[in-house]
Amino acid sequence: MSTVLSKSQQAYSTVHDRILTGEYAPGERLVLGRIGQELGCSVVPVREAIRRLEAEGMVTFERNVGARVAVIDEQAYLETMETLSIIEGAAVSLAAPFVSIADLASAREVNDRMRALLEDFDPVEFTNLNERFHRALSGRCPNSHLNDLVDRGWTRLDRLRRSTFTYVPERAAASIQEHDRILQLIGEGADPRTIELAVREHRLATPKAYLHRTDDPGDPEVLASAPGASPATSSRSHRPTTQGAS
Amino acid sequence: MSTVLSKSQQAYSTVHDRILTGEYAPGERLVLGRIGQELGCSVVPVREAIRRLEAEGMVTFERNVGARVAVIDEQAYLETMETLSIIEGAAVSLAAPFVSIADLASAREVNDRMRALLEDFDPVEFTNLNERFHRALSGRCPNSHLNDLVDRGWTRLDRLRRSTFTYVPERAAASIQEHDRILQLIGEGADPRTIELAVREHRLATPKAYLHRTDDPGDPEVLASAPGASPATSSRSHRPTTQGAS
DNA sequence: ATGTCGGGGATCGTATACGATCAACGGAGC
DNA sequence: GCTCCGTTGATCGTATACGATCCCCGACAT
């Protein structure tokens, strides 16, 4: 009795997927009428779908001009990673008390599969497992709103992250070790703040490596100043640093 | 020259506002046709507006049944506050290096107006100033995505927060002092993490007070376990063994 | 050569129309 | 008296139609 999806829903998920797969490239124009034809429906459902995608930030819309796939430039990528590091760190630390032994075992198994994948490296599969690993942990967070934000962060990232490990393959091995550490911290009931910072640093490590590899001249400070990520940032906080809490 | 807003936009902001003001109560049914009549337009623009509101979580939608104003229960309120505490804490700490002397002065002035408001207390005005104070700081955060999330958090909260200080008036005085401390930390270029925690605790203090006032027996752990919020929580974080959590 | 104006085509914005679906109600059968 | 089922009204979902707006491009004047 699975009710046929409404055309509006169809349009939504189709366009959504096509954006994720890259079939609709960033910046590409999304003409309502054309999409309607391709989907075999009129423009009305397509319009609704586009509206939702707009609200989710996947497409931009201009009055009387039309929609286009949102452009994700490097800046946006870095911001998304930084934001996700913050949100996910908090989510995992909140989730920690609710992570069962079974959950830990399951996550560990995923991590082992990643380890096995190191030889004969497959960036895409590796990335998929990576996402599974992380969702397994943050998913236990009792704050559903926070969870939702983690979800959105990953989705937002999916458009680029697909190839993250292609660009920075040397991160793979370190990543797995950091996963081990996170699991250990959770397992031994470490201080929430410690867990939070561990996850945060872990997530920030990849974009940092990415920046170092592409070009050092730029301005990697965007991430350098992430709170608590690197204790010794020495970022140009022109103000005298008074020592804070431990 | 201001181009007339599209009816879709009109519909969006009208419904949005009506939800915020409470004219449309939580759980209330939103009949497309009726709204269209009230706004003097057909249902199509209304549908689009509802879709966007749906994507933002302000309304829920059920196929072939219709839309209704999303219900915000106490749980959702607490989760939103907790989430905002995390996001805003990070945003302010990232913003700190970019907060100018003028910004600080401006924020201090807002805080002074709040102080003046303590006698002859006006919860609504107080709350407005409070939001202004906070946005002035987090607004300097260079991570626009994070900023956007702060914005959404406040908006989401606006539906309930309107009356927060009505419920917990004794928080007002403490709140102002905490503002002072935050300004001081930023002014002296304190460690980002210190700033982050200060903002986090500040935001969490109100819902905590709220919980204590309404009923202490309950289970205020939702917030007690916020990472780093209260160093001495000693939350009995016993891990659920094998068996699923919750 | 450059800048301005205007026509034409593509696309958007919205109203209207109509079939589809759901929920509520009331009567027939047990 | 209770359950089941068909009818009915309200509302949703979508197609179609048509006016409104914008962008592109070529002609004309400077």
From TrEMBL, chains A, B:
A GO molecular-function descriptor: DNA-binding transcription factor activity
State the species of origin: Brachybacterium endophyticum
This protein's UniProt keywords: DNA-binding, Transcription, Transcription regulation
* Highest taxon in the source lineage: Bacteria
Task: Using the UniProt annotation, give all residue ranges assigned to the region (Disordered).
Answer: 208-246
Output this protein's name.
Answer: GntR family transcriptional regulator
Indicate the segments annotated as coiled coil, or none if absent.
Answer: none
Q: Name one Pfam family in it.
A: GntR
The HTH gntR-type domain, residue ranges: 5-72
Amino acid composition bias (Low complexity), ranges on this chain:
224-235
